[in-house]
C-alpha cells in the first residue's frame, strides 16, 4: 500500500511538471487560444470608449466583457446585463 502511494505521488509530480513546462513553452497561437477561452468563460477586464466625429469621448464602459465584433459594430453585455451594440469609432482597451 505504501509503495502505491509513493508511485502515485511521483506520477502526480511528473504530471504537474509536464503541465508547467508545456505552459511555459506555449506558442503564440496557443496563448491566443487560451486568451479567447478566458474571454469566453469569464470575460476580460476592458475599457470600451465610444468617440464622436470630433474625437471626443461620448461614453465609456469598464468591466469584464466578452466583445464580439460583427460587421460594423461591437457587441457586449454591460454590468447591468444590457446588450450594448456600438458602431462608429470605438476603442477597446484590455488591462
Question: How would you describe this protein?
Answer:
The protein is 39% helix and 38% strand. It has 95 residues and is α+β, with helices and mostly antiparallel strands. The strands form 2 sheets. A 3-stranded antiparallel β-sheet has the order 2-1-6, with no helix packed on it. A 3-stranded antiparallel β-sheet has the order 3-4-5, with no helix packed on it. A hairpin with a 2-residue loop joins strand 3 (68-70) and strand 4 (73-77). It is elongated and about 70 Å long. The model has no long low-confidence stretch (mean pLDDT 84).
Radius of gyration: 21 Å
- Multimerization status: single chain
What is the average of the pLDDT values?
84
Distance between the ends: 50 Å
Q: Please give the share of residues in helix.
A: 25-40%
Number of strands: 6
Q: What can be said about the biggest beta sheet?
A: 3 strands, antiparallel
Strand ordering within the main sheet: 2-1-6
Secondary structure category: alpha+beta
- Would you identify the regions where 5 or more consecutive residues have pLDDT less than 50? none
Q: Helix-strand pattern, N to C?
A: HHEEEEEE
Provide the β-strand percentage band. Answer: 35-45%
Counting DSSP H or I runs of 4 or more residues, the number of helices is 2
General shape: elongated
Amino acid at each position: 500500500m505504501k509503495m502505491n502511494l509513493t508511485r502515485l505521488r511521483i506520477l502526480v509530480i511528473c504530471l504537474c511538471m509536464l503541465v508547467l513546462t508545456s505552459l511555459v513553452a506555449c506558442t503564440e497561437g496557443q496563448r491566443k487560444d487560451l486568451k479567447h477561452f478566458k474571454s469566453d468563460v469569464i470575460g476580460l477586464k476592458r475599457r470600451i470608449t465610444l468617440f464622436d466625429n470630433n474625437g471626443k469621448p461620448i461614453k465609456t464602459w469598464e468591466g469584464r466583457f466578452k466583445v464580439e465584433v460583427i460587421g460594423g459594430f461591437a457587441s457586449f453585455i454591460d454590468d447591468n446585463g444590457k446588450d450594448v451594440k456600438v458602431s462608429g469609432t470605438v476603442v477597446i482597451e484590455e488591462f
